[in-house]
YtkA-like domain-containing protein (Aneurinibacillus soli), 137 residues
Amino acid sequence: MMKQYVWIRRALLLVFLLVALVGCSANNAPQPGTNAEPAPIEVEFQTKTWAPKVGETLTFKLVVTQKGKPLDNPDKVYVELWKDKQRENHETVQPKKVGAGLYELKQTYKEPGTYYLMYHVEAGEVHEMSKRKVVVK
């Protein structure tokens, strides 16, 4: 009979330890509202034409918003420029800030051909980028 009580005690002790361990485990499930994804950045890349003539100076505008409002202080804003098939020789340019969420870059093309511009806007963990083609005649 005594052996039976020892076995019951051990079983109860084991159950108690298992309950204690399960209660102490970390809850790795995301809590509602605490792990929200960062809001995306929207960029509108504007110019009067994407097919300028040689020697024509274009003004490129970047309108940067987040949650529908101008993104006034992103971490980085820059534009890569290169001629077709010469990406390794690209130039990186910082556009001029001209207002809340508004940046401008002036560019003059001296030779005909196809060129590319790729803007980059970084804010926190969000990096928005897009490439546009300019065909100079």
User: Anything to note?
Assistant: Residues 41-136 form a domain with the Immunoglobulin-like fold (CATH 2.60.40.1930). The first helix runs from residue 2 to 24.
